[in-house]
Each structure stands twice: as C-alpha cells, then as structure tokens.
Amino acid sequence: MRYFLPISLLALSCSATVNAQQSETRQWFNSIQYTTLENTGYDYDTIDLSSHYYFAPQQNSGVWDDYGYLDTDSNIKLDYSNNDLANSFGVFGEGFYGNWFANLEFSDLSETDDYSVGVGYLFADDLKVSVQMQEFENIDTIYRFTAQYNYQLNDSDYLGLTANTDDELEIWSLSTRYFAHLNADSYLAVDVAYHYNNFNPYITSLANYYFNRHVAVGAGVADSKLLLEAKYFIDSQYYFTANFFDRADGEVYSIKFVAQF
C-alpha cells in the first residue's frame, strides 16, 4: 500500500492543477500584431489590431490561449489592418437565440457593398451548422456551408472537425484540431487542414507543445513551406506569440501581443 499513496497524491495534484487552470474564464480578447514580409525586391509590413468580446465567460481548456473549439455564445469582433498599400476596418457579430444563431460581417466598412450574412443551428452544444451568403461588388452572390463538430474526449481533451464549401463545390476545406492534456502542465495541440481550389490546393499543419503554463513551441508546414511558432505567457491575461513562415514569395516574420480579461 505504501507504493500507491504517492501515486494517488500525484494524480490528485495533477487533477487540482488542471481544475485550477480551467477555472479561469475570460470574455474580452485583444491583440496587436506586427508582420513583415522580407522579399529580395521589397519589404511589406502590416499592423493588425483586434478586439473580440463574448457576452458570456469563456472557459479555457487548460492552457491560456485555448477556450474550446466551438463558439456557442453571442460575440462581437472588431478588426483594423494597416499595411504599405491600404488599411481596413472590419466588424463581425454573431448572436444566439436558443440554439439558433445569426451572424453578419463587413470585412471593410469602407466597402459596405461587400458583406456576408449567415444563419445556423447548434445541436447539443457540439455540432454547429450554418449557411452564409457572401455579397461582393461586381461578383455573383456566393453561398457557403459550414459544419463544425466538437468531440469531447474528457474534461480537457477534444477533437474538433470543420468542413466548409461553396454551393458549387469549387472552393472547400477540411480541418481538424486535436487538443490533449499530457501530464502536469504539459499539453499538445495539433491543427491540420486541407484547402482546395482550382488554382492551388494545399495542406497546412501545426503542432504546438506546451512545456508548462508559460512556454510553448510549435512547428508545421503551410503549402509545403516551413512554419515555426513560439509562445510566452506572462500570466493568464497577457502573452506573446512569434511566428516564422518561409513562403514562396519571401520570409514572413510576425509577433503578437494578447491581452485578455
């Protein structure tokens, strides 16, 4: 019996750590990101600002940048982007009424002729289906269909699946996310997606390993090009993310600061 007591205490300690992490909820997510594309002929810089507010507390999955796979609460998001060529201010809103929901998006408020509006239904809090109408100036209306499914493996682990296509099946994508608690404060998140279009179908993948509550590193590919990521969490409210992407037209570097409350 003396061998089982330490093991039981360790398991209890790990469980307490996970529960403590998951008890932290956030509703307002803000970020600022600087991105630069370094090409042999030119440099291209972009600054992005984002503010995303949920009208209900969001429960994290055990790490400070993952709050589940599905959005199931009313929310509104504002985005501002400024680069060497132009700038834009976009807004997205999604509202729930029971299990029904509707959303509206303007990617750039200076171009109000370009917008998308959608409706959908949430089944049992784990299957979200919707249809979206996208309007663009001088382009025919596009209808897009999306299905998202979250399979909860246990209190922290889950497998998420998303399928998205247009009404003519010319542009579609399939993606999945696997999130798992490994031990103590270590977690693993793996994202894989296949994007199809008539010009350049490609696969993206990224695996992030969380060493503890403060440090995570990731690696993957996007269109057969190397993608690297690193995260440093100051605490549950503030963290940094740095990325490197070896694109076909040059090397892309970005750094993002997130503040969530």
From TrEMBL:
- Residues of the signal peptide: 1-20
Keyword set includes Signal: yes
Q: Which keywords fit this entry according to its UniProt record? A: Signal
InterPro entries hit by this protein = Porin_7
- Tell me the Pfam families matching this sequence: Porin_7 (PF16956)
Name by which UniProt lists this protein: Porin
What species does this protein belong to? Pseudoalteromonas rhizosphaerae
Q: What is the lineage of its organism?
A: Bacteria, Pseudomonadati, Pseudomonadota, Gammaproteobacteria, Alteromonadales
